[in-house]
Specification:
Keywords: tRNA processing. This protein is an alpha+beta fold. Helix content is about 30%, strand content about 20%. A 5-stranded mixed β-sheet has the order 1-2-3-4-5, sandwiched between helices.
Length: about 200
């Protein structure tokens, strides 16, 4: 008596696998990770206007990992809603009756990383140095309910420019995206808000 063994064809590669294969830079350890995080931002978190930026990172001669790559990547895009609002900025908005939905969305930067990847203060400082100081404030505002809302928005944007220069509403910030690619890792992407410099503790 013979038994028949059915042979099934291998599963088709996923859309993400095909994207990584087509767009990754050969030999760069973070290229595939950057593509994976960009895909996650676009399809899971609905970011738009996504771009990948090359940045130069300082190297440590004593680190073999540093010698493999002197460059890194940043991703920038427009999130569907505000990711972070400084507490002082939030108070300013509340006092003027402004909501997050009233404020024009800004381009935000994301730093792709892998769990267990080593980062020095020198490297992180270089990442923040590569970020722009800030985007130009919008010259016009779409207001549909009250005319005084336009005046409040004008006041907000003007004050925001000053607050950024003095760092009253915090310094530069980005999202650190970390992928779990270790043994048993499922490729989950976790995002952390990271701010430049020392953040002063707040009293409640």
């Amino acid at each position: 008596m013979t038994s028949k063994i059915s042979v099934h064809p291998p599963p088709e590669p996923s859309a993400l696998t095909n994207l990584i294969s087509a767009s990754s830079v050969p030999g760069h350890p973070l290229s595939a990770t950057t593509t994976q995080i960009l895909h996650n931002l676009q399809h899971q978190h609905l970011w738009t206007a996504l771009h990948i930026h090359d940045i130069q990172l300082p190297t440590d001669p004593s680190s073999p990992e540093d010698q493999q790559s002197k460059s890194g990547f940043l991703i920038s895009g427009i999130p569907p809603h505000r990711v972070y609002t400084h507490p002082d900025e939030q108070l300013y908005m509340l006092e003027r009756g402004l909501r997050d939905a009233d404020i024009e969305l800004e381009r935000m930067f994301v730093l792709p990383t892998v769990q267990g990847q080593s980062w020095s203060l020198r490297k992180m400082a270089a990442v923040f140095d590569s970020l722009p100081e800030g985007e130009e404030e919008p010259s016009s505002y779409e207001v549909s309910d009250k005319e005084d809302k336009a005046a409040k928005l004008q006041e907000y944007y003007e004050y925001r420019t000053k607050a950024r220069a003095t760092k009253e509403w915090g310094s530069k910030r980005l999202l650190l995206a970390m992928v779990d690619k270790g043994m048993g890792g499922d490729g989950t992407v976790v995002y952390y808000v990271v701010q430049e410099g020392a953040v002063k503790p707040r009293q409640n």
